[in-house]
Design goal:
Length: about 475
């Protein structure tokens, strides 16, 4: 049986899928059903010829649109104020009129935001982060075209992105040196990490010359080889203001960088081509500093926590080692020579006692058996029997003496014969009778045949009273 979902579970599942698939999109359409409640939020429908999409534009996001302008291009009087960004530095200037005040039914707009599900009504909607007049749609189309091109070329692949070092000590900062972004970045960096060196590579961050300067700065950082991380930051602005970071020139410079590159361009919803190519994207310049280095207070607290863990671990280790030492001492005491000698002495005493007891019992038993045997012998053998036995013993003694004399005589004869035979086998015996032994020096063997030597061989002739050296002049006789 299939699993039955509740309405809430199904709606949440659809919400998760939509938000994961469309985290940030640009949508172009016509404003209809515009509503302005007292909360300041704007609700409208974005329509075209084939479909309609509900849109909510929350009040805290309405300052991000481009300034509303009249037919002549001037800012309309009475329009709601919004942020204005210096085109060169990215610095926030005095407030100016915004798009939200002039938004009306029938107006063609370009909306950037995230798709989500409004669970209370079971309907999907677009949460707007940025609303701009449709006049900038050409930039949006160019953005999407470049995004597809670079994506097909592998610029955005996670496999090629480099790992960002933890708490880097040397950071190259590419930005405008006069903007609020760099001041916020440096202020946060000063209170974070464990000490860092930052080199600022000043560039334009807006305008036609900005892409070349940004790309040149990235190449310069890599040529210098000093930095561990490159941070590319800029304050918020409209799509046109951020366009330098949507150029292929900057994307290529980031792509070929051998040093990891992080970006913090614009506000949370602002996503540029540079963000896609970078090794890591942060939502704002301040978020870059927060992401690169932890708060120093957090580090101190972490050190305190590690110190406490170390103390606890050391205490536990010492406790375990003390228990092991006590156990070893008990074992050593049991195995010590003194203890062992005491145990052996006790064992010896016990064994001696048992041996004495057993010996006494055995002697008593033997005495009893001997007494019984004596009584039995006394009864079985009287004086007459003893006398008869003595006669037999005397006879056996005489016979043994005679047999021994005969055996000794026979042995003497055998000894004489063996001595005579042994004398006949003595190799030096013939020497005494005039014979001699001849040894061949070349082979060390005794001469037995004339065929064993050749003329010139040296011989040693041994006699009964010494040895004579000789040399073979010629050989005669048996040569076989």
């Amino acid at each position: 049986m299939s699993h039955i979902l509740s309405v809430t579970d199904l709606t949440q599942a659809l919400k998760d899928v939509l938000e994961a698939e469309f985290p940030f999109v640009w949508v172009r359409g016509q404003v209809t059903n515009l509503a302005r409640p007292a909360s300041g939020h704007l609700y409208f429908t974005l329509s075209d010829a084939g479909a309609a999409l509900p849109v909510v534009w929350f009040r805290n996001s309405q300052g991000r649109g481009s300034p509303a302008r009249g037919a002549s291009g001037d800012e309309k009087p009475g329009a709601e104020k919004s942020e204005r960004i210096d085109p060169l530095t990215g610095e926030v200037l005095e407030p100016g009129p915004g798009v939200a005040a002039e938004l009306s039914d029938g107006q063609e707009v370009l909306v950037a935001g995230r798709v989500t599900v409004y669970a209370a009504r079971g309907a999907y909607q677009l949460v707007a982060e940025l609303v701009q007049p449709s006049g900038v749609s050409d930039l949006a189309l160019a953005f999407e075209a470049l995004k597809r091109k670079l994506g097909d070329q592998g610029y955005f692949d996670d496999a090629r992105k480099k790992e960002i070092p933890q708490s880097p000590a040397r950071v190259a900062l590419i930005t405008s040196p006069q903007g609020a972004a760099v001041r916020d970045f440096l202020r946060l960096a000063e209170a974070r990490g464990t000490g860092v060196q930052i080199r600022i590579f000043p560039t334009l961050v807006q305008g036609e010359a900005a892409p070349a300067q940004i790309a040149g700065a990235l190449d310069a950082v890599n040529a210098e080889g000093w930095a561990e991380v490159v941070a590319l930051i800029r304050g918020g602005g409209s799509l046109e203001d951020l366009w330098a970071f949507n150029t292929e020139m900057v994307a290529q410079a980031i792509f070929r960088s051998q040093i990891p590159v992080v970006t913090g361009v614009g506000h949370e919803p602002d996503t540029t081509i540079a963000d896609y190519v970078a090794d890591q994207r942060f939502s704002t310049p301040s978020a870059v500093a927060s992401g690169l280095w932890p708060l120093r207070a957090d580090l101190m607290q972490l050190v305190d926590g590690l110190e406490a863990d170390l103390r606890r671990g050391m205490a536990a280790l010492l406790e375990r080692k003390a228990a092991e030492l006590a156990e070893l001492r008990r074992g050593l005491a049991w195995l010590s020579p003194g203890k062992r000698l005491a145990r052996l002495d006790q064992a010896w005493s016990d064994a001696s006692g048992r041996l004495l007891s057993a010996g006494g019992r055995m002697l008593d038993l033997r005495r009893e058996r001997l007494a019984v045997a004596v009584r039995d012998l006394s009864r079985a053998f009287g004086p007459a029997s003893v006398a008869a036995q003595q006669v037999q013993v005397q006879a056996l003694t005489e016979r043994a003496s005679l047999a021994a004399s005969l055996a000794l005589t026979s042995a003497e004869r055998q000894l004489e014969l063996s001595a005579a035979r042994l004398a006949g086998l003595d190799p030096e015996g013939p020497l005494a009778r005039g014979y001699s032994l001849v040894r061949i020096e070349r082979t060390g063997r005794f001469l037995r045949s004339a065929a064993e030597v050749v003329p010139g061989d040296r011989l040693g002739v041994r006699t009964a009273h010494g040895e004579v050296a000789a040399v073979v002049a010629e050989t005669k006789g048996d040569t076989a």
